[in-house]
Write a structure and sequence with these properties.
Distance between the termini: 26 Å
Strand order of the largest sheet: 1-2-3
Number of domains: 1
Shape: globular
Helix content: 25-40%
Number of strands: 3
Largest sheet: 3 strands, antiparallel
Order of helices and strands: EEEH
Number of helices: 1
Strand content: 15-25%
Oligomer: single chain
Amino acid sequence: MNPYSMIVQWSDEDRLFLITIPEFADRVVMPCTHGKNRSEAIRNGEEVMEMYLEAWAEEGEFIPEPSTLKIA
């Protein structure tokens, strides 16, 4: 599991859970994947993150920094 953020949102229109990765938003079309249920969507989100991170590393491209939650 990697340290990147993942937003899971239900879409009434698509009848699916949609996944957005905020740190990848300026490099990847969002939402980037989906699932029929929350668990499937999260699994698919993890796979998509790994796929992009591996591709960017292999191609020597910029890899976004993960966000860190700061609690006041």
